[in-house]
Prior knowledge:
A hairpin with a 7-residue loop joins strand 14 and strand 15. By secondary structure, the chain is an alpha/beta fold. Strands 10-9-11-8-7-12-13 form a seven-stranded parallel sheet, with helices on both faces. A four-stranded parallel sheet has the order 5-4-3-6, with helices on both faces. It starts with a helix and ends in a 6-residue tail after the last strand.
Amino acid sequence: xxxxxxxxxTLRQGAGVLASFSAEQKNQGLVAVAQALDCRRQEILDANxxxxxxxxxxxxxxxxxxxxxxxxxxxxxxxxxxxxxxQQADPxxxxxxxxxxxxxxxxxxxxxxLGVAAIIYESRPNVTVDAxxxxxxxxxxxxxxxxxxxxxxxxxxVAIIKDALNSPIASGTGDxxxxxxxxxxxxxxxxxxxxxxxxxxxxxxxxxxLNATGLIDVVLPRGGAQLIRMVVEKARxxxxxxxxxxxxxxxxxxxxxxxxxxxxxxxxxxxxxxxxALETFVVHEDILxxxxxKLEATLAxxxxxxxxxxxxxxxxxxxxxxxxxxxxxxAAEEDFxxxxxxxxxxVKTVASVEEAIQYINSHNTMHSESxxxxxxxxxxxxxxxxxxxxxxxxxSTRFTDGGEFGFGAELGxxxxxxxxxxxxxxxxxxxxKYFIDGTGQVR
Length: 443
């Protein structure tokens, strides 16, 4: 606990300094970080290769290794995300509302940083940079606690970020050149104390973070259902709950089959190990005989289909005829509502849009859901009645992402209903404060 206390004290000091920074100053720091990541990408790739190699040696399934793996292209994506954050308006200081009371008090509600945030996450080293960039731009310091599987990657990334923020900005130093020698009036470009990594590898670190009342203002879990449940159940500090993704695609009886197959393949197979990937295909019973063979042909054995009683004989016969019989199996009860994070999907048959909505609401994690339909009435009903952060019509759930929504980076997908919901960008790391100006009023 002593180590976490020490880190949090540093972060609290960093948050205090950062709170006085203008948007321009914060953007300067983010530019320096982006440039440093670009210049030192081989260092990042080398560290990541150690993590990937160990994960593969320990038998981690490929869909999860893919979440861990970085490439030069993915580093480009991380840098691009920082660029988008830089271009976004700084929420700190924004006036949410303002009015004058009858007695002359002038009241304004204004956005301010939360203070010290912590994020506990699995794999995905890009989250290290995304979380930092959003926290920094919104005036917060952040404590990162990644999984042991990404420890080398996270250490390298945090070291590079800190070095960039510590680079000099003063007359005669090269205007922020990280390799320039500091002069006597040296001051750092940014606030290196605004980011810290809990990296002992001890499981007790998580408990210490969750019990750091008065030290941490908010904690965000980002990962699988087990991690999120553990954080929600154990935390004594406030939690913004992000959700695992049991996402459904409902293929209505009026659906365009070509569109439905294309979206099914994209949602399930593009990256099976991410939270916005599809896990269950819900199909209207009137189109089973016509649609399911097209779905099976589109997936072509790349995805194991775990089928309910109505869909199994149709899909099994089609798959066996194509020599792909092993890719279709009968579903167990636990397959419905399961986040597979793999090239596996359940198939559920329903008799109406009402039954589809009822089924989805009883099996989902309130993350992302989609309907494929040509019926405007069914589309509107589905979006209105399905209980999820993001509800799509004729589009893939894979778009539930901060980058795709125009936020650049994201902290995660909030599946709760208070404070923030859906992809969380800059505004999710702010709260509001009331500023009241008077002229001597008393009550």
